[in-house]
Amino acid sequence: MSATVPLGQYLFRRIKDLGTEHILGVPGDFNLTLLDEIYNVPGLRWVGCCNELNAAYAADGYARIKGSPAVLVTTYAVGELSAMNGVAGAYAEHAGMIHIVGMPARMLQKARAMLHHTMEPNMDPAVYIRMAAPIRKTYAYLMDDKTMAEEIDRVIVACVQSRLPAYIYVPADVVSVPLDAKRLDTPLDTAVRNSNSGIEDHIISLVLSEIEKASHPVILADVLTIRHGGLELTRKLAEITQFPSYSTPLSKGIIDENAPYYNGVYNGKVSFPGVAEGVESSDLVLNLGPLLSDSNTGGFTRTIRDENLIYLGHAYCQVKGEKFDGVHFLPILKRIVGELESQSQNYNVPRPQQKPRLEPPVLSKASSGEIRQSYIWQRLGRFFKENDIILTESGTAQFGAPDATFPPNAKYITQIFWSSIGYTVGACLGALVAAKELRHPGRVILIVGEGSLQMTVQEIGTYIRYGFKPIIFVVNNKGYSIERAIHGPEQEYNDVSLIWDYQKMLEFFGARQDKGGRAKSQAAKTIEELEAVLNDEDFGNGDSIQLCEIHMDKFDYPWRLSTQVDITRERMKKATSSSS
Amino acid sequence: MSATVPLGQYLFRRIKDLGTEHILGVPGDFNLTLLDEIYNVPGLRWVGCCNELNAAYAADGYARIKGSPAVLVTTYAVGELSAMNGVAGAYAEHAGMIHIVGMPARMLQKARAMLHHTMEPNMDPAVYIRMAAPIRKTYAYLMDDKTMAEEIDRVIVACVQSRLPAYIYVPADVVSVPLDAKRLDTPLDTAVRNSNSGIEDHIISLVLSEIEKASHPVILADVLTIRHGGLELTRKLAEITQFPSYSTPLSKGIIDENAPYYNGVYNGKVSFPGVAEGVESSDLVLNLGPLLSDSNTGGFTRTIRDENLIYLGHAYCQVKGEKFDGVHFLPILKRIVGELESQSQNYNVPRPQQKPRLEPPVLSKASSGEIRQSYIWQRLGRFFKENDIILTESGTAQFGAPDATFPPNAKYITQIFWSSIGYTVGACLGALVAAKELRHPGRVILIVGEGSLQMTVQEIGTYIRYGFKPIIFVVNNKGYSIERAIHGPEQEYNDVSLIWDYQKMLEFFGARQDKGGRAKSQAAKTIEELEAVLNDEDFGNGDSIQLCEIHMDKFDYPWRLSTQVDITRERMKKATSSSS
User: Fold this and answer.
1) Is A92–B487 a contact, with Cβ atoms under 8 angstroms apart?
2) Best mutation site among B36, B493, B501, B521 for testing chain A: the one with the most A CBs within 10 Å?
């Protein structure tokens, strides 16, 4: 048996051993020999994307659904730079990916040859490596044969543990460098541990004692819990304790929304009536994996006092004002759930608080006529089924979706912190790939505004190329409505092309309605028309790709969007007047 | 009359005064108030693009055709990062643009608020400014009221003079800062001058004396001549001197290819028979605006001895081995042309060398049957007309196009140095905008492979949205043929989706063939079918957008591509064996 393995194969075997079965990316002349090695690893497959930004979005979407790191391969300069915004979003929202960049052979790099994709003044091939510094946890630049194997292992482990992007730069000649095959017999240890077990013990006993003392404890489960592998633990925690439980706009779906203990999406002042009161009046908020950005806190109107807060984060934990830096929540959550499970009689199950009204008057009960933001989201909620993967694009979809009630075990992707429009069209590809790996029986449902769709539309072609069957809702509201809500509602710059014919989109990208194909494109301008589409059996059964274009008014904004915009304006006005 | 003008308006008035009439970009919530100011400057218009990478490509294409700087507006983080690869290409190939990035208000920046589009660890809003450092000449970060006007002026001048991208970062609250309106009465001085006129005089007298002494002088006019405003001067130089004149792959079209003194595209060993000999045997090569990258020098096989070379570049000039750093060719070329014009009797007009055969045997004379790389480019050359703007995409189109004979006054865009595929689809939008400003009577012709088209296809929708009427050739050769030529011809990763229906593309994006529209989509699998399309009057007259899909074999590569790949392989083999 061979005692060595070529570096390219070593790298992809390590990746396969993590459970990742598909590599996303775009070929380029400096990564071709590396890509050859994918085919030498049984069970590993290539998914070619139309462009690198979309591929990065897809990798992000994959990571959110699969849990194991996504792998993105691009080529030197043109490819890696095109991917940058997508990788930055994954960094901001902790959707870890290993970004592998094919580079020119070391000899050419050292010669500073004026190859295509290089730049003056000095043709330094490492210039792009430096540009990516802020959007990654770490990187390996494989120039030295002696350290390559350790470097690959180190970067993979760091990526899995941090759930942040990490880069591996592979010069073309390095692909064939022989590495010690025996290393592969020892799987990488990627478990997250807190080095100081004394502090961990201390925090756990504090938390358990606070839970016992509390009269009205609640769970506020935020998105970094999901990103860092705590989804199932959180669901178990809510199930065991039956504490009133809340999600946030980013973590929606983490709590079973049909469970008696589910109390809604907490987003500061931008919440359904009763939700903010429920959280903010609690004497113990168990806040898991918080991400405290503007649109995930109702424009910074989250109001939880430190003395009522247990904050369990990836970078630190804090119990009622006492902060523990560098402590990761995951091992702690695991042990707390274990403790509560084993001694479920020993602690006080507090009475659930009064449930807030989850369908406030702001929502419409219409059954006919034009389709309004106040109507559509709850209706789509009723269309969703158990196990669905649901993606809502930045913009009105993302601000509307919290109005929906999600089915059990829904998985939800939205990007309300990084907020790069067009993101979900790429992320949906990654979700489809991940769902395939998970043998996921649910449907994948994409809800995207037409302005965002125009950004990244070609990846719809990739769904069709690989035979994926998402259900796509295109919210056609004639421009960037989120921007109209913010500024310049009638300004020309908030328009997009109004003459695209979305009914022809699937056909253009190769999904044939004729020849027995059942890919359908439909449109709805009224509630009645929408009902007809939603009740069409072909549309909902997930057997073929489907499109429903929903026409909506361009000045109709979800109430959550208008409210947040008002809050932000008010704050800016105050700040400006107080500073002047 | 008001003595002040809001900063946003000041900025756009400065831009309008340069001759730029259109602003390209994508809106985002941090640039909306800035965009409002476009409408306050008479004669300035907004062109909204589908995404920022395409917008950057468009800005690059605009700059190449218009000469005056393109202006790209994006939003904080998501927008500016998406544009990065496009801006980098403009940096590499000197297609100057002013990239204006809208940022959060200064107060929010200073507070390090966790706004959307920010990043951990510390929400530093300047992090993206640092990332772009290598791809710009200079930048202004408008944080201090006192220096804003000077900073804007400084950056604009630097952009025009360097023909490189320059950034202006505009926090949202800065748009309304009042600036001194009187400054606008003095136009910016953007002329390129050499500070040391003694050295300039010296170089000019050296060059003139070398020209007089030379027995077989030739002109080798490269692309940076065009980028730095020397196109017309170069044409005049060739016309006055009648010296045998050559272009390069990047500068093709700079010399009138129907003129008696035109001798072909010089690209080292990857040239038509006789071309390399003509240049390399000359005792005086007047090399203007060189860009010596791999694919612009036949894979580094350009062989011109220093003792026969006059190198007139943007960063230095060199006369027969004597180098003058920091001297710009443009003022020198201007004076040389003036001198030669005024004393055209006083210098020796040398006899033109024997003209190389511009249609070597490698080209096909077929008149029927399948469409081959060896046939198509000369045929398309005959389709081109005087004043056409021609774009060829990276890949086979770019390596094939030098086989065509261009008509007089053709303007040519290709990106064989930066080589980012998908580039021309965006650049074509910019060329269309620039042609409109120039009241350009010629047609705009885009030739793009289908793999590249898939990268950036949505911008076809922008042509249609704004009523532009390019002629589009889609070379459908079933994948990335340039990569097949380089490595892994049969590998799956070199495939793209084969089921897109390009015949439906224009319709999807809103160009209607019915209702009296004359936008046609046609396809050709044979020479006969191609002839029918090319001879269709609607197709060629430029009155409506047109598409011709040309089907070609996926393993059929232009001879220039195969030859360069062979040269590169041979060199790598030698280098590897000598280093081991």
Assistant:
1) no
2) B493
Compute the count of residue pairs across chains A and B with CB atoms less than 8 Å apart: 255
Per CATH, A197-342 and A373-564 having the same topology is answered: yes
- Inter-chain contact B134–A134, Cβ cutoff 8 Å? no
Domains in chain B: boundaries = 4-185, 197-342, 373-564
B342 contacts: CB under 8 Å, gap ≥ 6: none
Contact yes or no for A25/A74 (Cβ under 8 A): yes
Residue A510 counted as an annotated binding residue: no
The DSSP secondary-structure symbol of A535 reads T
Along the 580 residues of chain B, how does pLDDT read in single tens digits? 569 999 999 999 999 999 999 999 999 999 999 999 999 999 999 999 999 999 999 999 999 999 889 999 999 999 999 999 999 999 999 999 999 999 999 999 999 999 999 998 889 999 999 999 999 999 999 999 999 999 999 999 999 999 999 999 999 999 999 999 999 999 999 999 999 999 999 999 999 999 999 999 999 999 999 999 999 999 999 999 999 999 999 999 999 999 999 999 999 999 999 999 999 999 999 999 999 999 999 999 999 999 999 999 999 999 999 999 999 999 999 999 999 998 865 555 555 556 776 667 788 989 999 999 999 999 999 999 999 999 999 999 999 999 999 999 999 999 999 999 999 999 999 999 999 999 888 899 999 999 999 999 999 999 999 999 999 999 999 999 999 999 999 999 999 999 999 999 999 999 976 556 689 999 999 999 999 999 999 999 989 999 999 999 999 999 999 999 999 999 988 887 776 5
Min distance B420 CA to chain A CA atoms (Å): 6
Instruction: Decide if A123 touches B, using CB distance below 8 A.
Output: no
Q: Which of residues 380-399 of A touch B (CB under 8 A)?
A: none
ipTM for the complex shown: 0.97
Measured CA to CA, the distance from residue B426 to residue B437 in angstroms comes to 17
Q: Determine, for residues B458 and A454 on separate chains, whether the beta-carbon distance falls below 8 Å.
A: yes
Q: Is B422 annotated as a binding residue?
A: no
Which amino acid belongs to residue B526? Answer: T
Fold topology of A197-342: Rossmann fold (3.40.50)
Answer CATH for B373-564 from 2.30.30.40, 3.40.50.970, 1.10.3720.10, 3.40.50.2300: 3.40.50.970
Q: What is the distance in angstroms between the Cα of A85 and the nearest Cα belonging to chain B?
A: 5
> Which among A492, A494, A505 is the nearest to B508, CB-wise?
A505
B4-185: CATH topology is: Rossmann fold (3.40.50)
Rg over alpha carbons for chain B, rounded to the nearest Å, is 25
> What value does the CA radius of gyration of chain A take, rounded to a whole number of Å?
25
Secondary structure (DSSP) of B356-410: PPSS-TTS----SSB--HHHHHHHHHHH--TT-EEEE-TTHHHHHGGGSPPPTT-
